[in-house]
Design brief:
Blueprint lengths: L3 E2 L2 E2 L1 H34 L4 H7 L10 H8 L5 H25 L11 H17 L2 H34 L2 E2 L1 H8 L5 H11 L3 H11 L1 H12 L3 H4 L7 H18 L5 H4 L31 E2 L12 H12 L5 H20 L5 H23 L3 H23 L1 H6 L1 H26 L17
Antiparallel strand pairs: 1-2, 3-4
Helix pairs in contact: 1-6, 2-6, 3-5, 3-6, 4-5, 5-6, 6-12, 7-17, 8-15, 9-15, 10-14, 12-14, 12-16, 14-15, 14-16, 16-17, 16-19, 17-19
Length: 451
Amino acid sequence: MFSRIKGRTTPAAWREPRAILRATAGVATLGFLIILEIFARRYAGIPGPLTEQAKETIFAPKPGPLYAGLALMMVVLTWRQRFVAVGAAICIDVVFVLVRWAVDAEAADGHSFGNGALWVMLGYAVIAVTRRSGRERVLLLKGVGLGLLLAAGRKTGDIWLIITAKTRPTVLDQYVATADQALGNPSWVVGRILQATDPIGTHLLGLVYAQLAVAAVVVALYQLRNVGVEGRFPRHHLVRTFLVIGLLGPGIYMLFPVVGPVFAYGPGASGTGGVQWAVANLWPHTPPAVTAPHPMTYDGITPRNCMPSLHTAWATAIFIHTRKGPRILRYAGTFWLIATLGATLGFGYHYGTDLIAGVVFALTIEVALRSLDRGWDRSGVQFVAYGTTVFAALLVSYRYLPTQMAGHPWLFGPLLVLAMASVIHRYVRITGVWEPKAAPVPQPDPRPELV
């Protein structure tokens, strides 16, 4: 099945297993979406991601990354084809808007654009099947799949959040808040700082927090800028990590449901929660007292999306993938990570313990994906096992040792930080070994001067 030439595997030898892997991943993704569709209808009484995405071919789309998905798809096109695709998408959207205006149809949250981007992506899928062949067909289908996955990923995440609220009536915030005392209640501290800088700090961090996906698309477009010219995707890029984080994270939400300090210890936010559901109205001015924690009932609409902090995980992935970019991209990645950490704490959406778990979660997934692409070796297996163990240990300690952690902050606070730092250190070491070293430029032999 595999052909070798003088000990080296020929392209035909590795294309087949890679193609099988891609096909398996595609089938698994489709199966997951179908299962989630059934689960959403049966247990939450809501349409699933496939239904929601299909509806947007006709009805006004909800705010989401349809045009961002189109931008990712267009990395496989020539510049002329990109102008045609964008022009077609805009024209289709104008037609849809005029029709809705004529029939007085309401748009979701006042958002009317996006149908055109979806129609263009579907159109290119048809073109790939009917008008392309060989590598051109595969490349175009990859581009379409990438764009549609980004759009479907947002739908999947939204459905997951609703499912967590409807299927997890009790939350574990008291456990996490008690464990957070070992870190000095950072959400309370940053929350007071953010309130003191209002409105400038609030508006700036609010923009960063809300536009995290836009930052990810900008970085991804830089990484994929040469796909159309080279006729292939890079072996690893940000979109893969971003999607896998969003795919696996909600599963942890189901195991460890937490709503966040502004909800469990404050008035709530974004139209959900309320003081009537909170332990007390304490956030951010009065840290909670150390008491024996217990599960608490919360409303049926607030997502249980704190543990781990996926915003922190995504911002960490953006930071990692900007390290090889130009200086301005590296600075932007650093700023986005710091600002996201400040926003998650300052708005009361997360505890400090969530952020530590989010960093470990992101680095473990990043190494797993890179190992999957380059081939598993001992260092990759060891890192993923270590990262998974640390992540599991964090969750277990938050659940079963919170009062001990709060009672001995001088011990458990540094231990939490050291656990995260150990994963970061191992990540830097392993990726340093994996990165190809630049070969020194040979210098010409000195020539004797002619006298």
